[in-house]
Amino acid sequence: MKLDELLKEITITDRVNHLPSVSINAIQFNSKKIRPGDLFVAIKGFAADGHQYIQQAIDKGAVAIVGEQPPTQLDVPYYQTPDSRKALAHLASQYYGHPYQNHVMIGITGTNGKTTTAYLLKHMLEKAGKTCSLIGTVHNIVNNEKIQSKNTTPDPLELQALLAESRDEVVIMEVSSHGIEQQRVEGIQFDYALFTNLGHDHLDYHDSIEEYFNVKSKLFKQLKKNGVAVIASHNEWGRKLIHRIKATEHDVYTFGLDDRDDMKLVHVCTEYFPLIKLKQESLEYTFQLPLPGLHNAWNTIGALLTVSKMNLSLEKVIATLDMFPGVPGRFETYSHTSGATFIVDYAHTKDAIEYCYQTAKRENAERIVHVLGFRGNRDVTKRSEIVSLCSSVCGQLILTFDDLNGVPEEKMISELEHLKENGAKNNAIVIPDRTKAIEYAWKEARAGDWVFVTGKGQESYKQKFQLPASNDKETIQFLQQERFALPK
């Protein structure tokens, strides 16, 4: 693509050595990836400033530079822009031919439930005969092929490449607050935007929960002119968002407990897989949830309301729910010889953990045991509240690592000990090695226990632990098969 064609999508405030006919082979924002003929976009990141690597990019063959700093004398064209991150997203979209236009775009945001709702939507739509790509936390799935996911919302270059590669009719995206704030989805317009809930999370990144909410709500500014907003009304942040979006030109549909909601939860029979009744207009539907827990009732209803606005038969969609295969790392259950139930779940917020406990209590758990991990360099403001909650509910609380993320092991152990002494009752212990913490819970489990292992879900471990496993699922399978084999 010619440089002048590529630059049409961004704001340029100053330039030197303008050469519009230069051909651009690719776009990069990592100077290490530069090849001859590439355009380098200099971004000021959290760990490094890309402007410091401009000359390195030129030495490796970059034929043009886009950055925020005033231009200096260089051997290649330089274009100054007010916001390099925004520019990168628009350049990537232009380079790949604005591929979002080839799909029905569904964006899902919220603190909890994004992944489960995305997988439910994919299942529902595919059973209705539509092909779907999914971009999110567990995997990116494009043209029915799984691709490893690095972030919930990929960087603009990876995201636009995935959209361009996809031949699927529908693209379902989990959209994180980081993805919105860092403008990874800039330049994409959505047909449907779905809001699940909001709770205390990522306040190491956002200054306050109000700012966190404001960032999440920006997704709805990227709805197409005839785009549809689907919003949960059963939490206060959802109600605030409904009020905000109703002041715009977009259609807003809500789900919750109120008669004014477009889809209302009427009744829940509290079984492991709850039987629920919901109402839409004059019609009522009664069916069993494909996943345990009341929180998954909301995830399912949000997905159902969305597909109903895509003119699909709710009756037919609901009939396919008993075939839903589940979500990797979300409430995956494993048996124990004692009769205890082990659950691996991604839960890492107070609300998500409460959802887990509520399900256990409804199933008459005699004792709740929790292997609770924390990761380094993440939101520390929520830790004490979470530990206090867990200690008040659990018969046994085991504090351990998720990932160190560069924090020295001794420092992380000290932080866990501090949480134990100041936020927990006498039922808490610290076992830093995550696999040994799970092993301890396995050895101590007894009939009637519900043992939760939370924080990582399907994610791989980032450091080596003692047992030969790369994630929580493999740790439990090792304990089942190698150490404490189940009787045949």
UniProtKB/TrEMBL annotation:
<feature type="domain" description="Mur ligase N-terminal catalytic">
    <location>
        <begin position="24"/>
        <end position="96"/>
    </location>
</feature>
<keyword id="KW-0547">Nucleotide-binding</keyword>
<dbReference type="GO" id="GO:0005524">
    <property type="term" value="F:ATP binding"/>
</dbReference>
<keyword id="KW-0131">Cell cycle</keyword>
<keyword id="KW-0436">Ligase</keyword>
<comment type="similarity">
    <text>Belongs to the MurCDEF family. MurE subfamily.</text>
</comment>
<feature type="binding site">
    <location>
        <position position="184"/>
    </location>
    <ligand>
        <name>UDP-N-acetyl-alpha-D-muramoyl-L-alanyl-D-glutamate</name>
    </ligand>
</feature>
<keyword id="KW-0573">Peptidoglycan synthesis</keyword>
<feature type="domain" description="Mur ligase C-terminal">
    <location>
        <begin position="329"/>
        <end position="457"/>
    </location>
</feature>
<feature type="modified residue" description="N6-carboxylysine">
    <location>
        <position position="216"/>
    </location>
</feature>
<dbReference type="GO" id="GO:0008360">
    <property type="term" value="P:regulation of cell shape"/>
</dbReference>
<keyword id="KW-0133">Cell shape</keyword>
<keyword id="KW-0460">Magnesium</keyword>
<feature type="binding site">
    <location>
        <position position="31"/>
    </location>
    <ligand>
        <name>UDP-N-acetyl-alpha-D-muramoyl-L-alanyl-D-glutamate</name>
    </ligand>
</feature>
<dbReference type="InterPro" id="IPR000713">
    <property type="entry name" value="Mur_ligase_N"/>
</dbReference>
<dbReference type="GO" id="GO:0009252">
    <property type="term" value="P:peptidoglycan biosynthetic process"/>
</dbReference>
<dbReference type="GO" id="GO:0071555">
    <property type="term" value="P:cell wall organization"/>
</dbReference>
<comment type="function">
    <text>Catalyzes the addition of an amino acid to the nucleotide precursor UDP-N-acetylmuramoyl-L-alanyl-D-glutamate (UMAG) in the biosynthesis of bacterial cell-wall peptidoglycan.</text>
</comment>
<dbReference type="InterPro" id="IPR018109">
    <property type="entry name" value="Folylpolyglutamate_synth_CS"/>
</dbReference>
<dbReference type="GO" id="GO:0005737">
    <property type="term" value="C:cytoplasm"/>
</dbReference>
<comment type="pathway">
    <text>Cell wall biogenesis; peptidoglycan biosynthesis.</text>
</comment>
<dbReference type="InterPro" id="IPR013221">
    <property type="entry name" value="Mur_ligase_cen"/>
</dbReference>
<dbReference type="GO" id="GO:0000287">
    <property type="term" value="F:magnesium ion binding"/>
</dbReference>
<keyword id="KW-0132">Cell division</keyword>
<dbReference type="InterPro" id="IPR004101">
    <property type="entry name" value="Mur_ligase_C"/>
</dbReference>
<feature type="binding site">
    <location>
        <position position="176"/>
    </location>
    <ligand>
        <name>UDP-N-acetyl-alpha-D-muramoyl-L-alanyl-D-glutamate</name>
    </ligand>
</feature>
<dbReference type="InterPro" id="IPR005761">
    <property type="entry name" value="UDP-N-AcMur-Glu-dNH2Pim_ligase"/>
</dbReference>
<dbReference type="Pfam" id="PF01225">
    <property type="entry name" value="Mur_ligase"/>
</dbReference>
<feature type="binding site">
    <location>
        <begin position="152"/>
        <end position="153"/>
    </location>
    <ligand>
        <name>UDP-N-acetyl-alpha-D-muramoyl-L-alanyl-D-glutamate</name>
    </ligand>
</feature>
<feature type="binding site">
    <location>
        <begin position="110"/>
        <end position="116"/>
    </location>
    <ligand>
        <name>ATP</name>
    </ligand>
</feature>
<dbReference type="Pfam" id="PF08245">
    <property type="entry name" value="Mur_ligase_M"/>
</dbReference>
<keyword id="KW-0067">ATP-binding</keyword>
<dbReference type="InterPro" id="IPR035911">
    <property type="entry name" value="MurE/MurF_N"/>
</dbReference>
<dbReference type="GO" id="GO:0004326">
    <property type="term" value="F:tetrahydrofolylpolyglutamate synthase activity"/>
</dbReference>
<protein>
    <recommendedName>
        <fullName>UDP-N-acetylmuramyl-tripeptide synthetase</fullName>
        <ecNumber>6.3.2.-</ecNumber>
    </recommendedName>
</protein>
<dbReference type="GO" id="GO:0051301">
    <property type="term" value="P:cell division"/>
</dbReference>
<feature type="binding site">
    <location>
        <position position="182"/>
    </location>
    <ligand>
        <name>UDP-N-acetyl-alpha-D-muramoyl-L-alanyl-D-glutamate</name>
    </ligand>
</feature>
<dbReference type="InterPro" id="IPR036565">
    <property type="entry name" value="Mur-like_cat_sf"/>
</dbReference>
<feature type="binding site">
    <location>
        <position position="151"/>
    </location>
    <ligand>
        <name>UDP-N-acetyl-alpha-D-muramoyl-L-alanyl-D-glutamate</name>
    </ligand>
</feature>
<keyword id="KW-0963">Cytoplasm</keyword>
<dbReference type="Pfam" id="PF02875">
    <property type="entry name" value="Mur_ligase_C"/>
</dbReference>
<dbReference type="InterPro" id="IPR036615">
    <property type="entry name" value="Mur_ligase_C_dom_sf"/>
</dbReference>
